[in-house]
Amino acid sequence: MQSLQVTDLTEVTKLSRPAVSHHLKILKKAELID
């Protein structure tokens, strides 16, 4: 599986870097991502 960087996700989602980081933190806490 390919690893993505926060900057990759900000480009695709058009969300700010802090917003993407916040959502990733939630997903990681829920153990939906590594």
TrEMBL record:
Any coiled-coil regions, as ranges: none
Domain (HTH arsR-type) ranges: 1-34
Domain of life: Bacteria
Pfam family of the protein (one): HTH_5
Protein's name in the database: ArsR family transcriptional regulator
Organism name: Enterococcus xiangfangensis
Higher taxonomy: Bacteria, Bacillati, Bacillota, Bacilli, Lactobacillales
